[in-house]
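To close the section, here is one more complete example, presented without commentary so you can practise reading it yourself. The ligand is zinc ion.
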Amino acid sequence: MTELSLAYIFHQQQLLVDENFQLPKVEKLASDLSFSTGDQVIARDLQNSETIPHGLQLVPIRQLLQFWDTQQFEQASRAIQLLEWRRNHKFCSHCGEKTEAHATEFAMICPSCRYHQYPRVQPCVITVITRGNDEILLAKNAKNKSNMYGLIAGFIEVGETLEDAVRRETEEEVGLKLKNIQYLASQPWPFPSNLMIAFKAEYESGDIQLQEEEISDAQFFKFNELPEIPFKGSIAHAMIMHVTQGSKVADDTKTWL
Ligand SMILES: [Zn+2]
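Output:
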């Protein structure tokens, strides 16, 4: 009997799961990306010709986050990011030759010039800002049509420290100066390939001034009068709970703080 592998089979931003939201087991194909650690686990995109097997369904990944524990989330993140990277590195970025997958490492290699392309993560800072003992700054993303208020976040620029990025993003997006910037936690975030690096900081000075292309509203909210916030399972949710509900959030989020 052929040994079956636990499979992450993606179609765009959706994943194939059974009616209990569990991963299916399939026969491994030669082109599948396999994970070297632990159980036999593979990842691939749904083939164009492939029909969805009976009893399985495509579910948006974001919806699955709430059912997953940390370990599964991290494994799924790796699957998403490695597939994305493999899709985007079919050719050598140095000489243009078609690349080949390395036999044992996660690397795409150029057979002509031997240039190795490795998966990259995009570091991104996210900051929870408090004022006094009972207020938190929350901001509404201009591109998001919902009423959800989140945290200030952005990518690190070349040459910046993480703390520089925290200060710059906050000044750019809401015009405030910060003090006591402290590292909290991190979370891989596979949409598409970010590493969220979480900080907490205190308001120092300034009046809120919105960068309107990015932020449609930002306010200091009382801890007990929060608006709609990001979903449970996201690092933003864990960070907001951490500062507004005290330090017992590890139970709530299973993980990151
Ligand atoms: Zn090359």
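Once you have examined the tokens, check your reading against these statements. Residues 122-253 form a domain with the Nucleoside Triphosphate Pyrophosphohydrolase fold (CATH 3.90.79.10). The chain has three domains: 5-88, 90-119, 122-253.
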